[in-house]
Structures are given as C-alpha cells and as structure tokens.
Amino acid sequence: MHHFPDSLHQHELPNLVLLDMRMPDIDGPAFLKRVRDDNRLHKLRIFAVSGSSRSDFDSKSLQLDGWFSKPVRFDALLQAVRGQPPA
Hints:
By secondary structure, this protein is an alpha/beta fold.
C-alpha cells in the first residue's frame, strides 16, 4: 500500500495530480493539506475529481487548481490542464 503523498518523494514529480476526494486510505482534504504543507510538493497542480459536490467539503481549505464532477467531461479537463478558460 502506498502512502500518499509520501510516495511522491520517491519518484520524479508529476506535472499534475487528479485527486479522488473520497479515497479509502486518505481523503482528499487530508491529502491536499499534506501536499500544500510540504515545501517540495506545495506547487503541484491538483485537480479534484469527485462524485460528491464541492459543498460537501470545507471549500475554504481546499487549495485546488480545479474541480471536476463525475462523470468527468474530458474536454473540460483537458482545457483546465492546458490552462485554457472553460468553453
């Protein structure tokens, strides 16, 4: 079992992370806090993917680069990853 974000220190950093907000071992908000508090990882681009609403979480503490509800519209995801405004 990987302990994220600890395993991010063992590999080359990714360009971005697609984060499931309801993971079994660590939930999205806890993952985000650990990443944002880590000097090496804090600038990672993180996009949330969830079947839940953003309002189900304390949105003030969520330092995300984007939020995508399931089912994900891949065109919107690609636009966000490329830094383009939504169509």
